[in-house]
């Protein structure tokens, strides 16, 4: 489990690809300061498992299903990635509950300075718009953000300078693919709704 608060911008050192999987190597000394094989680190919002590290570079295996369902399949050496270690039980929940389970890949359709701040607009993947509400939470490439508005399957989000400086979102251009994870609480509410409606009819 994560909070969507990026700890470090890592750099992809290389990718070893095979027919059905890939091994990604990422330089990120900060998140490795207390990491061990088997630990979870979110990479652009995707929960990956540390297979090995030397204190500077760590590796993770990514299966074909994940490569197809997220933007990780488009990574290349030199790319910067948002990194977050899994949440400790004694830590502050600075963002919102993020599982690292990507719901789909969106597309940036605008990323520009607007009136009163910087705005990014993302066309949402099919099936997720119903979980997104104004002033609700959404994770974009693993970054916990507040929804400014949502309409016609497009979400608009305001970005503060700190977010632009500490994450990859300021680097995203029109056409960039970004990982989207909606608030898991919305999914639970949807799942519970039929049962609650049945109880109400009794």
TrEMBL record:
Its EC number is 2.5.1.9. InterPro entries: ATP_synth_asu-like_sf, Lumazine-bd, Lumazine-bd_dom, Riboflavin_synthase-like_b-brl. PROSITE patterns: LUMAZINE_BIND. Lumazine-binding repeats lie at residues 1-96, 97-193. The keyword Transferase applies. One of its GO terms (molecular function) is riboflavin synthase activity. Catalyzes the dismutation of two molecules of 6,7-dimethyl-8-ribityllumazine, resulting in the formation of riboflavin and 5-amino-6-(D-ribitylamino)uracil. This is Riboflavin synthase.
